[in-house]
């Protein structure tokens, strides 16, 4: 099976699997990350098939929707790729990217890194910031029944991994606990370049948000 056939089957699998997913982690999130990843990969020396498969499958079974199980994603991706005949070395690489690319994984000492992980991680982080990132943050906050803003609950700037995973804080806090940090965590020159405009937009959004919360 050639790369085009593999990718076509993967797209169909992801679309079907995520057809009822929460709006911030649905097929269109995957599509945007996939698009970002292909753009970044053009400027990096990397295995494009691994990049595209990891981008397409990175949220196939996100742990936050599966009782915190951090292995269900790699396992689901591995089972599918095995069934369609993808080579073992590609499968293992894709699984490792899925396992270690998330923001929460960054709380632990890096156990795996590759150029392909760097590309997909940047692509995913780009979709967490800017206008799209703001929309996704409030979509997920609403899905979890969280407050938009509470001035009596301040952001935690030095959270542990468990605190991050289990937070119930207002969505605005998430900007300070994650979203505004991502620009400086980009791995690639292209990722850093693309992140700057989105970061600036978030800063402008927050300025406007607070002006409306407490008009002068």
Detail the topology: elements first, then pairings.
Blueprint: H1 3-17, H2 27-41, H3 48-57, H4 72-83, H5 88-100, H6 115-126, H7 130-143, H8 161-166, H9 171-177, H10 189-213
Helix pairs in contact: 1-3, 2-3, 2-6, 3-5, 3-6, 4-5, 5-6, 6-10
What is the CATH level 1 assignment?
Mainly Alpha
CATH-assigned fold name: Hypothetical protein af1432
User: What structural category do the secondary elements indicate?
Assistant: mainly alpha
Largest sheet: none
Residue-averaged pLDDT: 92
CATH architecture verdict: Orthogonal Bundle
- The N- to C-terminal Cα distance equals 63 Å
Order of SSEs = HHHHHHHHHH
Description:
It is a single chain. Helix 1 runs parallel beside helix 3. The termini are far apart. 60% of the residues lie in helices and 0% in strands. It has a single domain, classed as Hypothetical protein af1432. The chain is mainly α. The longest helix is centred in the last third of the chain and has 25 residues.
